[in-house]
Design a protein that fits this description.
96 residues, alpha+beta, three-stranded antiparallel β-sheet, two-stranded antiparallel sheet, 3 helices
């Protein structure tokens, strides 16, 4: 599902117009982005938790040249789904 399809489906389900729905989604993403930049987690009830994690500095070896390189620390965004979603996905995959 791409962005246009998502916005259309959300607008249809909520009864708002497409432009209003697009604005709401953009606002939600902007607020979440601000929280991520502050290092905060964002938890959405019955869905999951988005968390900013810090990856430590590490040494990597280039497989073709065997040269060692230092990879600097960085921040990555992780997502942990709600337990009920995990169970639903496991159940659905067994049925197929």
């Amino acid at each position: 599902m791409n962005n246009k399809e998502f916005i259309s489906a959300l607008a249809r389900d909520t009864g708002y117009g497409i432009s209003d729905t697009q604005r709401m989604v953009t606002d939600i993403i902007d607020v979440m982005s601000d929280k991520f930049m502050d290092g905060d987690s964002v938890m959405i009830s019955n869905f999951g938790c988005f968390k900013v994690k810090k990856k430590l500095e590490r040494i990597m070896i280039n497989p073709s040249t065997q040269q060692r390189m230092l990879v600097p620390p960085k921040l990555v965004l992780g997502f942990k789904p709600n337990t009920s979603w995990k169970d639903k996905l496991k159940t659905e995959s067994k049925d197929k």
